[in-house]
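sry for the spam today, last one i promise. struct tokens for design, 443 residues
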């Protein structure tokens, strides 16, 4: 379902110290994958801690449309009765993936090697985003694909009747591309191989192995290689979704920039393919402690303790970009409060996210008195002692841009407003009450 309704303008105001515990929602990437693999497995998959944001609800609906039985049994508790590898039926209506690039790309992969047809649509943001990066390799499996001009949605896929396995070297470090190919490879006989230029988040590989598929990974001079043996019998599992480090980044950032703050964020995923922001913050001098490191549901998790900190600007190396690809908007806000400049390198992919995130952050920060420089693939933010604020940011249907500017306004001299907070519900439905519970003045 697309983000519907009128724009919801919101404002955040300079706040007193933040205190308390932030129970952030389940990981978005893991939630999509749990529903999709549950739908492809035989038997009942039970999921706890599922993110109930709109992106995930759209994926749940899509899995039902392909024939899986998907039921909500309580808050974050879901049951999926799968149809087995290759068992998808043909949906009766178009699959609307709303705002979610991950949803649409992974589901296209999951159905591309099954002989059914489906048409995929999305909201205005998703309809602008490139799909050929996924549909080109999916066509190599034997799927027939038509798209709008420039490889955009709506896309119609007639899944391959006799799929062949594929070896694909991705030009872009993208977990969505890798995952779409691996999910397609599930129903192709033989070995499907994906090589990515840098390792990206590995939730698909971990979860496929957990459901009983054979997955092997290797780092070579050419890149990170993932091999999957096709046609496994996926066995239903219990999946405990860890809390999302990308969502945790917003209360973490707020605590770092609002003087006197001290908060805890329990049970956050510390998957090493997702921890680039936390490495960067520690280099900036952030007071972050990781407590009770443990494994939950196959993923490393920890409780975070964060205190307000004096920060200094750093150079974020391009090799780290994929491990914090969704965190650059909020890092650019934190960087505005650091001493000196913060340079973010190798971030061209930000231009094809829910919005052009380099442009959206640069314009919004400038409107609030912060100096920013950009190139096609980098962004530099000049920190200052007192950040003026007082501006209004355009959020372009992008949840992370909306939350980033609301966090900014908690520590600026004057309030910060955004044109539309509606899309926050795609990934963090309880963002406002959670932040208000810590003492933040926003709404
Ligand atoms: C995701 C991968 C990333 C990320 C997105 C979630 C995933 O996109 O930006 O929010 O779950 O696979 P890319 O892999 O295309 O960079």
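last one done:
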């Amino acid at each position: 379902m697309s983000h519907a309704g009128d724009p919801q303008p919101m404002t955040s105001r300079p706040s007193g110290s933040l205190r308390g515990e932030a129970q952030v929602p389940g990981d978005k990437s893991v939630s999509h994958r749990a529903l999709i693999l549950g739908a492809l497995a035989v038997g009942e998959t039970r999921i706890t801690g599922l993110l109930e944001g709109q992106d995930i609800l759209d994926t749940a609906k899509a899995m039902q449309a392909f024939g899986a039985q998907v039921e909500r049994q309580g808050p974050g508790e879901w049951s999926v009765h799968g149809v087995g590898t290759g068992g998808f039926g043909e949906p009766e209506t178009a699959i609307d993936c709303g705002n979610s690039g991950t949803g649409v790309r992974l589901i296209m992969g999951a159905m591309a090697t099954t002989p059914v047809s489906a048409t995929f649509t999305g909201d205005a943001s998703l309809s602008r985003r490139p799909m050929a990066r996924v549909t080109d390799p999916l066509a190599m499996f034997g799927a027939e694909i038509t798209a709008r001009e420039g490889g955009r949605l709506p896309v119609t896929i007639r899944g391959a009747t006799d799929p062949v396995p594929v070896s694909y070297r991705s030009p872009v470090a993208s977990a969505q591309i890798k995952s779409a190919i691996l999910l397609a490879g599930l129903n192709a006989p033989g070995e499907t191989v994906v090589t990515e230029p840098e390792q990206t988040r590995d939730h698909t590989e971990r979860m496929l192995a957990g459901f009983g598929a054979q997955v092997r990974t290797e780092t070579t001079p050419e890149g990170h290689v993932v091999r999957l043996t096709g046609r496994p019998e996926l066995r239903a599992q219990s999946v405990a979704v860890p809390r999302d480090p990308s969502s945790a980044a917003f209360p973490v950032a707020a605590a770092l920039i609002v003087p006197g703050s001290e908060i805890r964020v329990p049970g956050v995923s510390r998957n090493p393919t997702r921890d680039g922001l936390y490495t960067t913050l520690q280099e900036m001098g952030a007071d972050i402690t990781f407590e009770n490191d443990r494994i939950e549901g196959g993923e490393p998790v920890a409780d975070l303790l964060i205190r307000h900190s004096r920060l200094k600007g750093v150079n974020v190396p391009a090799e780290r970009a994929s491990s914090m690809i969704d965190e650059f908007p909020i890092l650019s806000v934190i960087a505005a409060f650091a001493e000196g400049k913060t340079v973010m390198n190798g971030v061209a992919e930000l231009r094809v996210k829910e919005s052009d995130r380099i442009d959206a952050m640069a314009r919004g920060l400038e409107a609030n008195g912060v100096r920013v420089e950009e190139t096609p693939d980098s962004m530099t933010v000049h920190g200052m002692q007192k950040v003026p604020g007082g501006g209004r940011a355009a959020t372009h249907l992008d949840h992370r841009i909306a939350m980033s500017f609301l966090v900014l306004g908690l520590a600026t001299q004057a309030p910060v407003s955004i044109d539309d907070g509606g899309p926050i519900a795609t990934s963090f439905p309880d963002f406002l009450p959670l932040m208000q519970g810590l003492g933040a003045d926003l709404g």
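The chain has a mean pLDDT of 97. ok im logging off now
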